[in-house]
Specification:
The protein is α/β, with parallel strands linked by helices. It has one domain: Spore Coat Polysaccharide Biosynthesis Protein SpsA, Chain A (Alpha-Beta Complex), CATH 3.90.550. Helices cover about 35% and strands about 15% of the residues. It has eleven helices and eleven strands. The strands form three sheets. It has a five-stranded mixed beta sheet. A three-stranded mixed beta sheet has the order 5-11-10. Strands 7-6-9 form a three-stranded mixed beta sheet, covered by helices on one side. Strand 10, helix 10 and strand 11 form a beta-alpha-beta unit.
C-alpha cells in the first residue's frame, strides 16, 4: 500500500496567446517578427490552440486533489477561463520576474522564476499547456512519502558520448532543446562531478519550491546570461537543472518512463495519435513546432475536444453547453 502524502500540492502553467495584437506588437518591437519555421522564435512557440482548456479538463477529471492552479502570463487571461474560480490564480510576469529582464518571451527564462510565485505550495507540479493527464493519478505518483519529488526521465545510455559524437564527429550539432538541457547537465557536472545523462520526460514534473530557490541562488552567476534572453538562445539553461541537482544530491526518486507511462506526440505527425490509443499512457503531451501548419493544429484541437469533451468548472459558465 502506498503511503499517503499529507501536504498541499499546487500546479503551475505558463500560457501565452500569440495572436493577441497587444502582446504581438510588444514582442515584435523587442524581438522582431515571429519566424514561422524557426525552432526558437517560431509560431509554434506562441500559438494558442486551446490546449490549456483541455489540460485543465484532464486535471479536474484525473487529479482533482490538486489544491491551487497558478497560470503565469504576460498581462493575458484566456477568454474562456473563469478567473474568479477560487482554485485559479493568474500570475503576471511582473509579479515574479525582475523588471530588467522584461518583457520576456522565453519560457526557459520564465521557468526559473516560478518559485517566486506568492502563495505557491512547497510541493508543486509544473506543466506546459500542451501536457495532459490521461488516467487517474494520486499525489504519490508525484511525491514519495519522504516528501521528495518523483523525477521522470527517459533512459539515455551514453548520452554524453552520443552528443559529443554527433557534434564533434558527425558535425550535425545539437538541436536547441538538447543544447539547453546539456547546458544544465554541464553545470551540475562542474559542481558535483556527476553528469546526469537521463533526459526529462517532457511532461508534468514535480518540484520542491525551496530546492528550486536554493538552486537558483547556487547558480546565480551562471543563470544571469540566460535571464537577459528575451527569446530562446542556445546559451539558455533549461529547467532540468533543478532535477539534475536533486539527482546529484539524492533528494528525489528517479523513475524511468516508457510509452505506457509518458508519451510525447507531435501534432504534425498524424500517426502519433494512434500511438496514444495503443499505449494509453499515464501522461501525454502534444507538441507544436516549426514543422506544423494550421491544419495540423486544428486536427490536434479536434482530437483533444473528443478526448476531453466535458467542460470543467474552470471555464466560464456561459461557455458550457
Amino acid at each position: 500500500m502506498k503511503n499517503k502524502c499529507d501536504f498541499d500540492i499546487d500546479l503551475v502553467y505558463l500560457w501565452v496567446d500569440g495572436a493577441d495584437p497587444v502582446w504581438l506588437a510588444k514582442k515584435n518591437e523587442v524581438c522582431g517578427a515571429v519566424i514561422s519555421d524557426a525552432a526558437t522564435n517560431g509560431v509554434g512557440r506562441y500559438v494558442d490552440n486551446d490546449e490549456l482548456k483541455y489540460s485543465l479538463r484532464s486535471i479536474e477529471c484525473y487529479a482533482p486533489w490538486i489544491r491551487k492552479i497558478f497560470i503565469v502570463t504576460d498581462s493575458q487571461i484566456p477568454k474562456w477561463l473563469d478567473a474568479s474560480n477560487p482554485r485559479i490564480r493568474i500570475v503576471d510576469h511582473r509579479e515574479i520576474i525582475p523588471g530588467q529582464y522584461l518583457p520576456c518571451f522565453n519560457s526557459s527564462v520564465i521557468e526559473h522564476f516560478i518559485c517566486k510565485i506568492p502563495g505557491l505550495s512547497e510541493h508543486f507540479l509544473y506543466a506546459n499547456d500542451d501536457m495532459f493527464i490521461n488516467r487517474c493519478v494520486s499525489p504519490e505518483d508525484f511525491f514519495a512519502s519522504d516528501g521528495f519529488p518523483v523525477v521522470r526521465c527517459n533512459r539515455r545510455f551514453f548520452r554524453r558520448l552520443t552528443l559529443w559524437m554527433r557534434e564533434k564527429v558527425l558535425r550535425k550539432g545539437m538541436s536547441h532543446y538538447n543544447r539547453i538541457v546539456n547546458n544544465a547537465a554541464v553545470l551540475v557536472k562542474e559542481k558535483y562531478g556527476v553528469f546526469v545523462g537521463s533526459k526529462a520526460h517532457h511532461n508534468i514534473d514535480s518540484y520542491l519550491k525551496s530546492d528550486c530557490c536554493k538552486v537558483e541562488e547556487m547558480f546565480a552567476d551562471a543563470l544571469a546570461p540566460t535571464f537577459i534572453n528575451h527569446v530562446r538562445r542556445d546559451n539558455d539553461i533549461q529547467r532540468s537543472l533543478y532535477h539534475y541537482v536533486a539527482l546529484a544530491e539524492q533528494r528525489c526518486h528517479l523513475k524511468y518512463v516508457n510509452q505506457k507511462s509518458s508519451l510525447r506526440l507531435h501534432n504534425h505527425i498524424p500517426r502519433h495519435f494512434e500511438r496514444l490509443e495503443k499505449y494509453n499512457p499515464l501522461f501525454f503531451c502534444i507538441n507544436d513546432s516549426q514543422y506544423a501548419d494550421d491544419e495540423d493544429r486544428r486536427r490536434a484541437t479536434r482530437f483533444l475536444a473528443g478526448r476531453f469533451p466535458e467542460k470543467s468548472t474552470f471555464e466560464i459558465l456561459s461557455k458550457r453547453h
